[in-house]
Amino acid sequence: MENQYELEFCEIYNRCITRENSDKLLAWLKTTDFFTAPASTKFHLSCPHGLVIHSLNVYRVMRERYFEEGDSEESFALCALLHDVCKAQFYKASTRNVKNEVTGAWEKKPYYMVEDAFPYGHGEKSVYLIERFVRLKTQEAVAVRWHMGGFDESVRGGSFALNGAFDKYPLAVKLHLSDLEATYLREREAASAKATNEQD
Q1: How far apart are CA 161 and CA 115, in angstroms?
Q2: Where are the domains of the chain?
Q3: pLDDT (tens digit, 9 = 90+) per residue, 137-155?
Q4: What is the pTM of this model?
Protein backbone atom coordinates (compact mmCIF):
# COMPACT_ATOMS: atom_id res chain seq x y z
CA MET A 1 0.00 0.00 0.00
CA GLU A 2 1.38 3.41 -0.99
CA ASN A 3 2.15 5.91 1.77
CA GLN A 4 2.06 9.71 1.48
CA TYR A 5 5.82 9.89 0.83
CA GLU A 6 5.66 7.35 -1.97
CA LEU A 7 2.75 9.22 -3.54
CA GLU A 8 4.65 12.52 -3.42
CA PHE A 9 7.81 10.89 -4.77
CA CYS A 10 5.90 9.30 -7.67
CA GLU A 11 4.10 12.56 -8.48
CA ILE A 12 7.40 14.47 -8.80
CA TYR A 13 9.09 11.57 -10.59
CA ASN A 14 6.33 11.16 -13.19
CA ARG A 15 6.00 14.90 -13.75
CA CYS A 16 9.71 15.62 -14.15
CA ILE A 17 11.31 12.44 -15.45
CA THR A 18 10.24 11.37 -18.93
CA ARG A 19 13.40 9.67 -20.17
CA GLU A 20 13.11 6.35 -21.96
CA ASN A 21 12.50 3.45 -19.53
CA SER A 22 11.95 5.77 -16.56
CA ASP A 23 8.66 3.93 -16.03
CA LYS A 24 10.56 0.65 -15.77
CA LEU A 25 12.94 2.14 -13.21
CA LEU A 26 10.02 3.32 -11.06
CA ALA A 27 8.32 -0.07 -11.39
CA TRP A 28 11.53 -1.77 -10.21
CA LEU A 29 11.82 0.65 -7.26
CA LYS A 30 8.37 -0.45 -6.16
CA THR A 31 9.56 -4.08 -5.97
CA THR A 32 12.25 -3.06 -3.45
CA ASP A 33 12.02 -1.59 0.06
CA PHE A 34 12.98 1.90 -1.20
CA PHE A 35 9.71 3.41 0.01
CA THR A 36 9.79 1.79 3.46
CA ALA A 37 13.53 1.59 4.27
CA PRO A 38 15.37 3.91 6.70
CA ALA A 39 17.89 6.45 5.43
CA SER A 40 20.57 5.18 7.84
CA THR A 41 21.13 2.76 10.71
CA LYS A 42 21.30 5.47 13.39
CA PHE A 43 22.43 8.83 12.01
CA HIS A 44 19.57 10.50 10.14
CA LEU A 45 16.01 9.33 9.54
CA SER A 46 16.68 5.90 10.98
CA CYS A 47 12.99 5.13 10.80
CA PRO A 48 10.47 3.53 8.44
CA HIS A 49 10.17 5.57 5.21
CA GLY A 50 13.36 7.48 6.09
CA LEU A 51 14.97 6.83 2.70
CA VAL A 52 12.12 8.25 0.64
CA ILE A 53 11.68 11.17 3.08
CA HIS A 54 15.38 12.00 2.71
CA SER A 55 15.18 11.75 -1.09
CA LEU A 56 12.26 14.19 -1.10
CA ASN A 57 14.10 16.54 1.27
CA VAL A 58 17.15 16.60 -0.99
CA TYR A 59 14.94 17.33 -3.99
CA ARG A 60 13.20 20.19 -2.17
CA VAL A 61 16.47 21.79 -1.04
CA MET A 62 18.05 21.40 -4.46
CA ARG A 63 15.03 22.79 -6.31
CA GLU A 64 14.41 25.68 -3.89
CA ARG A 65 17.99 26.82 -3.42
CA TYR A 66 20.00 25.90 -6.49
CA PHE A 67 17.77 25.79 -9.56
CA GLU A 68 18.90 28.43 -12.05
CA GLU A 69 17.92 29.45 -15.55
CA GLY A 70 19.22 26.80 -17.93
CA ASP A 71 19.08 23.98 -15.36
CA SER A 72 17.12 20.85 -16.22
CA GLU A 73 14.07 19.87 -14.15
CA GLU A 74 14.65 16.27 -15.20
CA SER A 75 18.30 16.27 -14.13
CA PHE A 76 17.44 17.77 -10.75
CA ALA A 77 14.69 15.20 -10.14
CA LEU A 78 16.79 12.24 -11.33
CA CYS A 79 19.77 13.17 -9.19
CA ALA A 80 17.95 14.25 -6.03
CA LEU A 81 15.29 11.55 -5.92
CA LEU A 82 17.63 8.68 -6.85
CA HIS A 83 21.04 9.63 -5.42
CA ASP A 84 20.62 7.11 -2.57
CA VAL A 85 18.91 4.32 -4.51
CA CYS A 86 21.93 2.23 -3.46
CA LYS A 87 20.27 1.99 -0.03
CA ALA A 88 17.33 -0.04 -1.33
CA GLN A 89 17.65 -3.63 -0.09
CA PHE A 90 20.54 -2.47 2.11
CA TYR A 91 19.14 -2.35 5.66
CA LYS A 92 17.63 -5.14 7.73
CA ALA A 93 15.41 -4.68 10.77
CA SER A 94 16.59 -6.61 13.81
CA THR A 95 16.56 -6.43 17.61
CA ARG A 96 19.24 -6.26 20.27
CA ASN A 97 19.31 -6.37 24.05
CA VAL A 98 19.65 -2.98 25.72
CA LYS A 99 19.86 -2.37 29.46
CA ASN A 100 17.12 -0.11 30.80
CA GLU A 101 18.93 2.58 32.79
CA VAL A 102 15.96 3.05 35.14
CA THR A 103 15.02 -0.56 35.96
CA GLY A 104 18.32 -2.28 35.22
CA ALA A 105 16.44 -4.91 33.20
CA TRP A 106 17.53 -6.01 29.73
CA GLU A 107 15.00 -5.23 27.00
CA LYS A 108 14.78 -6.08 23.31
CA LYS A 109 14.99 -2.93 21.19
CA PRO A 110 14.56 -2.71 17.43
CA TYR A 111 17.40 -1.38 15.31
CA TYR A 112 18.59 -1.42 11.71
CA MET A 113 21.69 -3.23 10.57
CA VAL A 114 23.46 -3.19 7.20
CA GLU A 115 23.04 -6.29 5.07
CA ASP A 116 24.56 -5.33 1.74
CA ALA A 117 23.75 -8.01 -0.84
CA PHE A 118 25.59 -6.05 -3.56
CA PRO A 119 28.72 -4.40 -2.09
CA TYR A 120 29.58 -1.99 -4.91
CA GLY A 121 30.25 1.25 -3.09
CA HIS A 122 27.82 4.08 -2.55
CA GLY A 123 27.51 6.70 -5.27
CA GLU A 124 28.81 4.34 -7.95
CA LYS A 125 26.25 1.73 -6.92
CA SER A 126 23.43 4.26 -7.32
CA VAL A 127 24.71 5.15 -10.80
CA TYR A 128 24.89 1.46 -11.71
CA LEU A 129 21.36 0.73 -10.49
CA ILE A 130 19.83 3.75 -12.25
CA GLU A 131 21.61 2.93 -15.50
CA ARG A 132 20.19 -0.59 -15.55
CA PHE A 133 17.07 1.22 -16.79
CA VAL A 134 17.75 4.88 -17.64
CA ARG A 135 20.75 6.36 -19.41
CA LEU A 136 22.21 9.21 -17.37
CA LYS A 137 23.87 12.26 -18.87
CA THR A 138 27.52 12.66 -17.89
CA GLN A 139 26.84 15.49 -15.42
CA GLU A 140 24.05 13.45 -13.77
CA ALA A 141 26.22 10.35 -13.39
CA VAL A 142 29.05 12.43 -11.94
CA ALA A 143 26.69 14.22 -9.54
CA VAL A 144 25.20 10.98 -8.21
CA ARG A 145 28.62 9.31 -8.03
CA TRP A 146 30.13 12.12 -5.94
CA HIS A 147 27.11 13.27 -3.92
CA MET A 148 28.86 12.25 -0.67
CA GLY A 149 31.75 14.63 -1.38
CA GLY A 150 34.53 14.26 1.17
CA PHE A 151 32.45 11.77 3.19
CA ASP A 152 32.94 9.18 0.45
CA GLU A 153 35.23 6.43 1.75
CA SER A 154 37.21 6.40 -1.50
CA VAL A 155 38.43 9.98 -1.05
CA ARG A 156 39.76 9.99 2.49
CA GLY A 157 42.83 12.18 2.35
CA GLY A 158 41.72 13.98 -0.82
CA SER A 159 40.84 13.09 -4.38
CA PHE A 160 41.70 14.74 -7.68
CA ALA A 161 38.63 13.05 -9.20
CA LEU A 162 36.30 14.65 -6.64
CA ASN A 163 37.94 18.05 -7.12
CA GLY A 164 37.62 17.68 -10.87
CA ALA A 165 33.98 16.64 -10.61
CA PHE A 166 33.05 19.65 -8.50
CA ASP A 167 35.11 22.00 -10.67
CA LYS A 168 33.63 20.80 -13.97
CA TYR A 169 30.02 19.96 -13.06
CA PRO A 170 27.99 22.48 -11.01
CA LEU A 171 25.18 19.89 -10.75
CA ALA A 172 27.51 17.73 -8.62
CA VAL A 173 28.13 20.62 -6.21
CA LYS A 174 24.42 21.43 -6.02
CA LEU A 175 23.49 17.83 -5.22
CA HIS A 176 26.20 17.51 -2.58
CA LEU A 177 25.20 20.76 -0.86
CA SER A 178 21.52 19.77 -0.97
CA ASP A 179 22.32 16.38 0.57
CA LEU A 180 24.28 18.08 3.36
CA GLU A 181 21.56 20.63 4.11
CA ALA A 182 18.80 18.03 4.07
CA THR A 183 20.74 15.68 6.36
CA TYR A 184 22.36 18.03 8.84
CA LEU A 185 19.90 20.93 8.96
CA ARG A 186 16.37 20.12 7.81
CA GLU A 187 16.21 16.54 9.08
CA ARG A 188 17.90 17.41 12.36
CA GLU A 189 15.43 20.27 12.90
CA ALA A 190 12.50 17.96 12.13
CA ALA A 191 13.81 15.32 14.58
CA SER A 192 14.30 17.98 17.25
CA ALA A 193 10.79 19.34 16.76
CA LYS A 194 9.34 15.83 16.94
CA ALA A 195 11.20 15.10 20.19
CA THR A 196 9.97 18.39 21.69
CA ASN A 197 6.36 17.65 20.71
CA GLU A 198 6.58 14.16 22.23
CA GLN A 199 7.79 15.64 25.55
CA ASP A 200 4.96 18.23 25.71
Answers
A1: 29
A2: 4-89+121-191
A3: 999 999 999 999 877 766 5
A4: 0.88
